[in-house]
Write a structure and sequence with these properties.
This protein has 69 residues and is mainly alpha-helical. The protein has one helix and no strands. The radius of gyration is 16 Å and the shape is flat. This is Retrovirus-related Pol polyprotein from transposon 17.6. One of its GO terms (biological process) is DNA biosynthetic process.
């Protein structure tokens, strides 16, 4: 039933019933080399990231971990 699925980030539900636990394999931050986004996809990616930020789904980070979008 399609009515149970959110149609936008703003109406996406959340829960605090489960607290995720991550066990790291190493004591040092993992970093992945950034790669370029094709120009045709850049504006779409920026818009989607902005929507996710505004909806509170993601937040800015300044951690030592680095993964490309």
């Amino acid at each position: 039933n399609f009515e149970v699925f959110s149609k936008s980030y703003a109406t996406l539900g959340s829960t605090n019933a489960v607290i995720p636990e991550f066990k790291l394999l190493h004591q040092f931050p993992i970093q992945t080399r950034p790669y370029p986004i094709p120009n045709i996809a850049k504006s779409f990616a920026k818009k989607e990231i902005q929507k996710l930020l505004e909806a509170g789904i993601i937040e800015p980070s300044s951690s030592n971990y680095c993964f490309p979008v």
